[in-house]
Design a protein that fits this description.
12 helices; 6 strands
Length: 288
């Protein structure tokens, strides 16, 4: 599998001047991403216990520099281990972020994506064409499926969608290098070990209510009184892991890692944290 670079390249203040200017121009159109908001995000999703201090600082620096809002899934991070056991951090964005930012710049003059070839023939590729108002000729970028196929559930079931997403992200970085240079890559462009939760991390210390004190026949009002999620929330959690391509057994292992036996005894306090963990544990990027 080919990866065009490291997940993040931190630029100097001079090189980030253009990016910061764009962020200032956009502040009137979107909520500013501040250190305080990022700390709140890390606390809400239990990441302050999962990440090391240097990783938290790196995540916040990238998010603030490029004004990426984690609450909108414009940026997220996953710790992972290299083959030699060394711990690293993937800082990732969604391909939609490139599209939204390009539209705000005012120089985008239309774009299109298509595919040619087939998997069977070994020549399936996605082709992206981007037009800029200040360019005479468009940019054309091609990405081949064989170079990025991760051979997992989502790539095997949605190969056209996935290779298009990789091509779109790369093409927009090439078409707007001053604005997007140094921004995080999308999960689809990175090796699977860099985008899945594989590393042993410390989970938030949250104790569920004693299961023995909750009768199986307990009604919804009693369940609410002890802070358990309702049936609708349980169904949403199930939909999340199915959308992420996880087997039921895989999802159950994640839920158990937070001290619960299944969805029925998950507390409201931990609900959002577990939902996020299920999304991040997917076999590929669920954003489409």
């Amino acid at each position: 599998m080919q990866v065009l670079g490291i997940v993040i390249f931190l630029k100097s203040k001079g090189e980030n001047k253009m990016t910061n200017e764009i962020a200032v121009k956009e502040k009137g159109k979107m909520q500013e991403v501040t250190k305080e908001k990022l700390i709140q995000y890390l606390k809400d999703f239990g990441l302050t216990n999962s990440l090391e201090t240097n990783e938290i600082n790196q995540f916040m620096e990238i998010a603030i520099t490029f004004q990426l809002n984690p609450f909108k899934r414009e940026i997220y991070c996953i710790p992972f281990k290299m083959k030699d056991g060394q711990r690293k951090l993937s800082i990732i964005t969604g391909y939609e972020t490139y599209l939204k930012r390009a539209e705000r710049l005012g120089t985008l003059n239309g774009w299109e994506v298509s595919t040619q070839g087939s998997i069977k023939g070994g020549d399936l590729k996605a082709i992206v064409i981007i037009n800029r108002k200040d360019w005479e000729n468009p940019l054309k970028h091609e990405v081949y499926f064989v170079e990025y196929n991760q051979n997992n559930h989502i790539w095997n079931t949605k190969p056209i969608t996935m290779i298009k997403k990789v091509a779109i992200a790369q093409a927009f970085r090439l078409a707007f290098p001053d604005e997007f240079g140094g921004m995080p890559y999308t999960a689809d462009e990175l090796p699977e070990n860099m985008t899945n939760v594989k590393v042993e991390i410390e989970k938030p210390t949250i104790k569920p209510p004693p299961i023995a004190t909750i009768p199986a026949s307990e009604d919804k009002e009693k369940a609410s009184a002890v802070g358990l999620i309702n049936e609708k929330q349980g169904k949403r959690m199930y939909a999340i892991w199915k959308s992420a391509g996880l087997a039921d057994s895989q999802a159950l292992e994640i839920i158990k890692s937070y001290g619960f036996t299944g969805t029925k005894d998950v507390t409201i306090e931990t609900y959002d944290v577990i939902c996020e963990a299920l999304k991040l544990a997917e076999k590929g990027d669920a954003q489409e």
